[in-house]
Amino acid sequence: MRLAPLQVIKVLCKRFSTFPEDASGIRNAPFHTAFLNAFRTNLEEHVSDIPVFFISLSSWFHGLNTTLGQSFFEKVSHILCDGEKKEHKNLKFSQSQQSAVTNIITALKNDKRKPNVAEEERLVYQNNPNQDTPISNFTVDCYYEDDTSVVAIELKTVRPNSGVFKNEKDKMFSAKAGLKNKCPNKDIFYYLAFPFDPLSDTPTGSNKPLFMKHSVDFTRFIAPDEVLLADELWDFLSGDTGTMQQILDIINTIATTDFQGKYNFLNEPQNRNDDWTSYLQQLNEWKLFSEITWLDTVRQKSNKSKTLVRKLNQTLFDEEGKYRETRLNCIK
User: Fold this and answer.
1) DSSP characters for 33-52?
2) pLDDT one-digit tens code per residue, 185-207
3) Could you tell me which residues are beta bridge partners of residue 187?
4) Could you state, in order of their start, the residue ranges of all structural domains in the chain?
5) 299, 296, 324, 317: which is closest to 309 by C-alpha?
6) How far apart are CA 120 and CA 176, in angstroms?
7) Do residues 108 and 169 lie in contact, with contact meaning Cβ atoms separated by under 8 Å?
8) 312-316: long-range contacts (C-beta < 8 A, 24 or more apart)?
9) How confident is the model at residue 86 (pLDDT cuts 50, 70, 90)?
C-alpha cells in the first residue's frame, strides 16, 4: 500500500522512544496518586509499580492516541486518495446563502426538519449572486479535487463530544456553499469521518445507525450519508475493498515485539554489505519496496558518484524514524 508502512514505522519509532521504562522521569502527580490509592487492590493484579508506572503509562497511551489522530490517520488518508490537508481562505457566499444555512440549522435544532443532504444543498446552492459575505477560514483534514468533484473529509475522534454536531453542520454547509461558488461546475462532497467503530464486535466492522445514536444530537443534525465510518471510510479513500484490513495487516506485520531489533538492523548501512540476504528479506517483510528498487539500482552501478556513495551510507531512517526518501532522487 505504497508509503503506508513508513507511517507505521514512524509512529512506532516515536512511541518506543518515549515508552516509560522506569520511574526516574515521572513528573509529580500527587492528586492522581492520592485517588489511585483507592484502586490499588484492583490495579496490582495487572500493573506493577503503582501508581508511578500506571500514571506514566496512561500518559504514554494518551500520546499514542494523539499521534494516531493527528498524524497517522491523516497521512494514510492522503496516501490512499492523493489528498492533502488544506486550509481554505477567502471563500465567500451570498447573504441569501448564509440565511439558508442559518435557517436549516435552526430547523434541525427545533426538530422542524430531518437531515437531508439533497434538499439542504438545493436550498443552500440557489440564490447565490452577490457573493460578498466572507466565510470563516477553515482547514480540511483530507482534501482532493478532480475534473468533476471536490471532496472534503474531516477526520474525527471515534468518541465525539456531545453537542458538537450543530457547529459541525454549520461549518459543513457554509464550507460547501463557498466551495460550490468557487467551483460551480463541480459536485461538492463534505464528510465527517471516523477511522473505526469502537462499538463493533470486529476490528473492521461497523454499525452506523448505532454509532450515530451513541452521541447526543448526532442524528438530529447529520445525515448518515454525510458520515464515513470504519471500513467504509478507508474503502472510499482507496476506491477499493478490504482497505482497512490491509492497513491493519501492515501494522500487525511491523508492530511486533522484535520491532526495535529489526528497525536497528535496517538502520545500520553496513548490514547491506555484511548480510544482504537478511537485509533484503527484512525490507520485503516490511513492504519497503521503493527502497528495494533503489538499492538494486545502486548496487548494479559500476561507477558510483561521491554523492551516491554518501547517500548509500546514510541510515535508512532519521532520528525521528522518518524515511530518507530524498535518497531516491539522486540516481541519474
Assistant:
1) HHHHGGGHHHHHTT-SSTTH
2) 999 999 999 999 999 999 999 99
3) 149
4) 4-72, 84-248, 256-329
5) 299
6) 11
7) yes
8) 312/269, 312/272, 313/269, 314/269, 315/267, 315/268, 315/269, 316/266, 316/267, 316/269, 316/291
9) very high
